[in-house]
Design brief:
This is DoxX family protein. The chain crosses the membrane at residues 12-35, 42-59. Keywords: Membrane, Transmembrane, Transmembrane helix. It comes from Haloarcula japonica (strain ATCC 49778 / DSM 6131 / JCM 7785 / NBRC 101032 / NCIMB 13157 / TR-1). The protein is 69% helix and 0% strand. With 100 residues, it is mainly alpha-helical. The protein has one domain (2-7, 15-97). α2 (16-34) runs antiparallel to α3 (40-64) and α3 packs antiparallel against α4 (78-97). The protein starts with a helix and ends with a helix. The model has no long low-confidence stretch (mean pLDDT 84).
């Protein structure tokens, strides 16, 4: 359901739907690369790069209070939107642990 993710792509970026598909393909490729022992370290670096690349969407979601429609579980609260930001730092450190 790429439409859900299109809603949080920053309006300053071109072709939001294409960017959502591109990030999905990249995440899938990197995820599969994590399963292969000899590509795991490179894939861990790629997860860090992807996280940095999509971090602005998390910031934009927190700042702009975009309503995420179609999630079925309701829109995340203001607290959840802002709590996700520092959690990204923790996840980056966890990913860095696997870079060897």
């Amino acid at each position: 359901m790429p439409e859900l993710f299109v809603q949080i792509v920053s309006p300053v970026l071109p072709a939001p739907l294409a960017l959502v598909y591109l990030s999905g393909v990249a995440e899938t490729a990197v995820g599969l690369s994590l399963l292969v022992p000899w590509t795991r370290s490179y894939a861990a670096w790629a997860t860090i790069a992807l996280s940095v690349a999509i971090f602005p969407a998390n910031v934009d979601m927190a700042v702009s209070m975009v309503t995420i429609e179609g999630t079925g579980g309701g829109d995340p609260s203001v607290l959840v939107r802002w709590a996700r930001l520092p959690l990204q730092g923790v996840l980056l450190l966890w990913r860095y642990w696997y870079t060897d």
